[in-house]
Amino acid sequence: MLRVIKPLLLGAFLFLAACGDMSQEDVVSKLKDKAGEMPGYRTNAAMEMKTGEEEQKYDVEIWHKKGDFYRVQLDSEREDKGEQVILKNANGVFVLTPSLNKSFKFQSNWPEETSQPYLYESLIRDIENDEDSTFTATENYYKFETKTNYHNRQSLPTQEIYFDKKELTPVMVQVLDEERNTAVEVQFSGFEKDDSFKDSDFDVESNMAIATAATADSRTASLEVLYPLRTFGAELTDSLETETVDGKRVILTYGGEKGFTLVQEKDMARAVSTEESVQGEVVTLKDGTVGAIRDGHLQWQKDGTSYHLASETLNEEEMIEVAASVEAKAPK
């Protein structure tokens, strides 16, 4: 009888071992294989930003075609906010602002240069690049905790990434602040492999035409001057208002050890689509707004207003914090 039981126990042990969870290295290898084999994919995500005075919620639509083609549409759930579309095609990286019928071309390596919590390849790259990443297998998910690669990584240093255990598709990303509170949360839905994309699906003009037709411009004609809540000790020393063709321009000067200048002006919608070249790296502010940063200059557009922040003393992370805090209706 004992001779019969031993083979049975050995067989059961081998079966359980074969059905056990994969190692971290095995999962990463499978994720890389899946990303490399897919001709393209499309997915939707709900992104919640909890970093400002009020929470910001975005519906995000992501398209990717093998060969470095991307289309990311960020649409705010608030009726008074517009949408932005990020495109990458054979001609470069573009940010479209449909409410202005305007596109901006960036000299940028986006999305490789920083973390992108809604892009499959970026999540895998962050896992690969962090030798100290941790890995946990639960009943339904593989969970990785890694360092982020943001310009403001000191304030958002860590992320938790969840993949579906069966499909190896992204389920949720939580970006954590220094105190491990969730600052950004992305929840995916409907991740699907897609081999139907054509290069023309990522064309600037066609995407602008579609987005502009679907966008209702709810902006007011007048400029509402906003002030930063985060100033790093600098104080408002001067406010200058000048007239422009589209309305007015306001220049706020903040003096101090961490001094800076903030320029705001209304950017009116164009009857014909226009393109403007922008020097700098693509950066996402804490409220989801996309801008460009380079050599002490940060520029972005929000709610039909153009902003330009310049400083010789603020570092990039500090500039991003100042920009993200421009929401007060009176000086701090």
UniProtKB/TrEMBL annotation:
The keyword Signal applies. Residues 1-17 form the signal peptide. Keywords: Lipoprotein, Signal. The keyword Signal applies. Coiled coil: none annotated. PANTHER family: SPORULATION PROTEIN YDCC. This is Outer membrane lipoprotein-sorting protein. It comes from Salimicrobium halophilum. The lineage of its organism: Bacteria, Bacillati, Bacillota, Bacilli, Bacillales.
